[in-house]
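RETRY 2/3 - previous attempt timed out on the joint model. Re-submitting the same 574-residue input unchanged.
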Amino acid sequence: MKKQRRTVTAKQHAAGWIYLAPATLLIAVMSFWPIIQAIITSFKTGSSANMQWAEPIIYNYKRMFQDQLFLRSVGNTFLYLLVEVPIMLILAMFLAQLLNNKDLKFKGFFRTCVFLPCATSLVSYSLIFKSLFVTQGLMNSILIKLGILETNYNFLGNASSAKAIIIIALIWRWTGYNMVFFLAGLQNIEYSVYEAAKIDGANGWQTFWRITAPLLKPTIVMTAIMSINGTLQLFDESVNLTSGGPANSTITMSHYIYNNSFGTGVANFGYASAMSFFVFILVAVLSFINMKVGDKRD
Amino acid sequence: MTKRRKTSGIQKKLIPSYIFLTIVSFISVFPFYWMISAATNTTVEVARGKLTIGTHALENFQKLVAQQNLWGSLGNSFLYAGVQTIVALFICSLAGYGFELYHDKNKDRVFSVLLLAMMVPQVATMIPLFKMISKMKLLNTVWAFILPAISTPFLIMMFRQNSRNFPVDIMEAARIDGLSEFKIFFKMYMPIMKSTYAAAAVITFMNAWNAYLWPKVVMTDNRAQTMPMLIANLAAGYTVDYGVLMMGVLFCSIPTMIIFFVLQKQFAEGITGAVK
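RETRY 2/3 succeeded.
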């Protein structure tokens, strides 16, 4: 009897491995193997058909840190990250807090509206925002009618305003997305906790900082990791909303890497791989720091 | 007195909330209205900032069909997104099921290694993957589109987390009844987990439909292009016809908007899927 049971579990364990084999193999071949390949390629130069070891071996990395355009793309990406992510997450948390109020009416309506931007593709909303802010566009005609502007202003033709528009567009697209996480997080907090706080005389601000924020910590850490990860890989907006311009002043890292590998210029897989490995390290390090910070406050 | 106010109508102290939410809602919805109205106006009217629905929808549509391979791209997007959804759901649910219900130390170790793939950015793998796909002569095929996206840590984790609620007892019962291990998956796991499948399907379809960077790399032939690629092409010229462009954007957005309105609950569950 006992023996028979053991063979069944052995069979079950084997079946378990078969279940996870396709997914595991695919991730190995489609994620882990390519990243190893990317590291190797980053030490090579030459056209894609005829690649040789770089001389010196770290040539691409040296070049990267002297490439003003690449450094600018890193700077831009970090600017978007540092401005957009905090504003968006605070706004998302605030909206979730408002929508979690028991006495609020039309909750479903408001939630649907705030969430709606997620129904657009990244290319679609980039182009919608482009059409809103082009020189001959809606924003200009409204601002002129209101008397704020006298002549059409080229929002996308000026480095600072173009960056601001990318940030505004990102906030528009992703706030509702993050709000969904906070709403789910808030719904897990028992209402009685708030009642108890109220009885103890805590005001709204104290309740938020002492009860809501600590309980939402896992959600905050997770949305922060996702947003950082996404922002470091920004591509669609840079390509379609501003085309990286004016004069590459809004270009992101992914966009610049794409231009160096599959863009209109000369394909330089070695150099592009070096830059993409840099992005990989950034993503990994920032996610790691974020998780550590999340752990410490426990 | 206060009690009565609570039940009837709007609470006074919530008025700032209503005002704020109304403003945010307006900002969220307005670009959609703008997209629709611009799609019905000429590019001159769009440039003037005309906000009302116009009469040039048909004209814009005809120009769009004449300039771009609209039906082909729509078909491609549906095909790629549909195949990706079906294959990804099958592979990832199988893995999530295996990781959770057959778990042991070694499988848990494999799982934590797989999670690391979440940190691998698309730009870092795109060059080696492009080489791989072109060596396999798969460029411009549905396989090129789906291969890197059908096994994701996110989906596997989503199925694994949701499998925690799966009643293990009935698996035992099924085994005693002589059902094979694989039949248990198809006949018991899949039907019981259908709400997880629905949420996973919505989020996978949306992601596939919206994909841009990877298709731009491997779908080099015009005939293989997707909707996001089509609208990006419309906007890439020196003179952009904004009426036609917005008509294209509208076509690219209608499928995802329908899914959003019909399956909003599943969409929200899909987004937060892996956290529970």
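Chain A has one domain: 67-296. Closing ticket.
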